[in-house]
Design a protein that fits this description.
about 50% helix; Four Helix Bundle (Hemerythrin (Met), subunit A); Immunoglobulin-like; 3 domains; alpha+beta
Length: about 300
């Protein structure tokens, strides 16, 4: 009996020591957690404005991400553009715990490929900032801030940084450049063809009798509509958006010009010169745009 009591007491002592050891280990672990707690990305008391801008690709779209020490709920904007006339923007970005992320950017449902200028900015006025106190934003200083002025809000500060970023792999950029070279050649052909058609249509009207012209213009319009459909198929990328917009306007005004010619013998073609001027003006824009896109 004495031996049994000694055994029970010894067992209790061993388990008691093990429990104390475990408790000590837990306390040590808790202490280490407290000591290694993450520091804030920025010092909340630092009012010198800081910001970073980067991007990531997800599901074929470019998302702009970054950090800033501006307070949460500060509204930001991002504008993206390239030399070929591509422009897009997102004005609904809000800072969340020193971080921000834009919506996805693409071009006609295709990924952005090549070099683009990206501008991150915000305005410290009540029109832009409706979720954060303007007085808090006005405390920020630094090289990223500059003063601006307008008739509505008077003087106020704005923040802006711009970066030239390249999207896509080297192979993708090379493939895009080749496609753009071909697009510009196609645009030049379309431009010259419209210019030729202007003269041909004018000569057809001048040299044909009313009866013959009415027959010829019907055939002309059918062929012209088919041609316009075929060239619009070649205008689907963003290689030279300014040139593309100019060509689309030229084609629209040329169609209206054709309609004016169809009734010219009856009403004197009073709007022929007007639409002819519009087409020529559109073509001037296209010529300048193609020259710029080639550089």
């Amino acid at each position: 009996m004495k031996h049994i009591v000694i055994l029970i007491v010894s067992t209790f002592f061993i388990f008691s020591c093990m429990d104390k050891k475990n408790n000590s280990t837990n306390v040590a672990k808790e202490s280490r957690v407290i000591k290694t707690a993450e520091k804030p990305l920025y010092d909340p008391n630092d009012k010198i404005l800081k910001a970073t801008l980067d991007f990531e690709e997800k599901n074929g779209k470019i998302y702009f991400i970054g950090t800033t020490n501006l307070p949460s709920n500060t509204k930001l904007g991002i504008e993206v553009a390239n030399k070929n006339g591509y422009t897009s923007q997102d004005y609904k970005i809000f800072v969340n715990d020193f971080h921000f992320e834009s919506s996805g950017f693409s071009s006609q449902k295709n990924p952005l490929v090549g070099s683009y200028e990206v501008k991150l900015f915000t305005y410290f006025n009540k029109s832009w900032q409706k979720k954060v106190d303007i007085e808090i934003l006005e405390e920020y200083t630094g090289q990223l801030i500059k003063e601006t002025e307008d008739e509505i809000f008077g003087k106020y500060n704005q923040f802006e940084i711009s970066k030239q970023l390249t999207f896509g792999t080297k192979a993708e950029v090379g493939k895009k450049n080749e496609a753009c070279d071909q697009t510009l050649k196609d645009y030049e052909k379309i431009y010259k063809k419209i210019d030729e058609k202007l003269l041909t249509l004018e000569n057809l009207f001048k040299k044909s009798s009313k009866e013959n012209f009415n027959i010829e213009i019907g055939k002309w319009n059918r062929e012209s509509r088919a041609w316009q459909r075929s060239v619009k198929v070649k205008m689907t990328n963003d290689c030279c958006n300014t040139g593309k917009r100019g060509l689309l306007l030229a084609l629209t005004n040329f169609s209206l010009l054709e309609s004016e010619y169809a009734f010219a013998h009856d009403d004197g073609g009073k709007d022929i010169d007007n639409f002819k001027k519009k087409v020529k003006s559109n073509l001037k824009v296209v010529k300048v745009a193609i020259t710029k896109c080639k550089k």
